[in-house]
Amino acid sequence: MNQKFKNIIKATEASGAIVWSYFGTSLKTTSKGTPLNFVTEADLKSEKNLIRAVKKEFPQYNIQSEEAGFINNHSDYTFVMDPLDGTINLKTGIPYFSVTMALLKGDEAIFAVVHNPVTGQTFWAEKGRGAYLHGQKIRVNKVSEFKESIAAYTCGWQTPRGYSRNFIKKLNDLGIQRVLTSWAPVYDFCLLASGKIEVMTCYKNELHDFVGGLLMVREAGGRLTDYQGRALKNDRVNTCLLTNGSAMHNKIINVLKK
């Protein structure tokens, strides 16, 4: 890995420390239009640190962030960042959140980093070079039975609750052991990539919530398709199924097609 990417990883970890310093405090929130869509001081301070790092290491690249929006430098490369994935969790005292950055070349993710400040874990992946946790290569597991499997479900914040209930019911009807709905999907991708869970579904998520995770799972040997079982057209597709590549994948697709 080149030194510039190493510095991006360090910046992500530094933003994790910023976010973690707010855990257990009374966070003030600013609404972004709805009660479920808001920003905190932790988000903004973390974002400021990430943007500063990208501008230092890759000043010519575009930046797309959840809070700052799109900074257009007319480049083929774009850093997509989420300075705090799991804002609601942080605000309510649930220790499940992370900081992430991913680099896109056009519509393809080529580098990603996820730092979980609660566990101290740092995951990263680079196209063609694998996925890693603290420098050790990670792989999806080989579990092939629903009764032994955990699925993570994630959706965009505007998704109707009825859709989510029906979707989760479909997974439960397959006999899945547990369905995880964490409110912080970025770390869920890392759980799949490192063999801790077996299935992940995404429905109309924001780009910053999934793009790095797609690369993480792909480089760890997972399978990624749309809900029809087709290969993803690019890494901006916001509705997809990710698994460890077992026969469960096609069985889930058959249910989703109904």
Q: Termini distance?
A: 44 Å
Unreliable stretches, pLDDT < 50, 5 or more residues? none
Helix content: 25-40%
The structure class reads alpha+beta
Number of domains: 2
Order the strands across the largest sheet as they lie in space: 4-3-5-6-7-8-9-10
Element string (H = helix, E = strand): HEEHEEEHEEEEEEHEHEHEEH
Q: For this structure, what is the CATH homologous superfamily of the largest domain?
A: Fructose-1,6-Bisphosphatase, subunit A, domain 1
The amount of beta strand, in percent, is: 25-35%
Oligomer: single chain
CATH architecture of the largest domain: 2-Layer Sandwich
Report on the structure:
With 258 residues, the chain is α+β, with helices and mostly antiparallel strands. The protein has 2 domains: 3-137, Fructose-1,6-Bisphosphatase, Chain A, domain 1, CATH 3.30.540; 146-256, D-Maltodextrin-Binding Protein, domain 2. The chain contains 7 helices and 15 strands. It has an 8-stranded mixed sheet with strand order 4-3-5-6-7-8-9-10, sandwiched between helices. A hairpin with a 2-residue loop joins β1 and β2 (37-40). The mean pLDDT is 92.
In short:
This protein is an alpha+beta fold and 258 residues long.
List the helices and strands and how they pair.
Blueprint: H1 3-20, E1 29-34, E2 37-40, H2 41-57, E3 62-65, E4 69-71, E5 77-85, H3 87-92, E6 98-105, E7 108-116, E8 121-126, E9 130-133, E10 136-137, E11 150-155, H4 161-173, E12 178-180, H5 185-193, E13 199-203, H6 207-219, E14 223-225, E15 240-243, H7 248-256
Parallel strand pairs: 3-5, 11-12, 11-13
Antiparallel strand pairs: 1-2, 3-4, 5-6, 6-7, 7-8, 8-9, 9-10, 13-15, 14-15
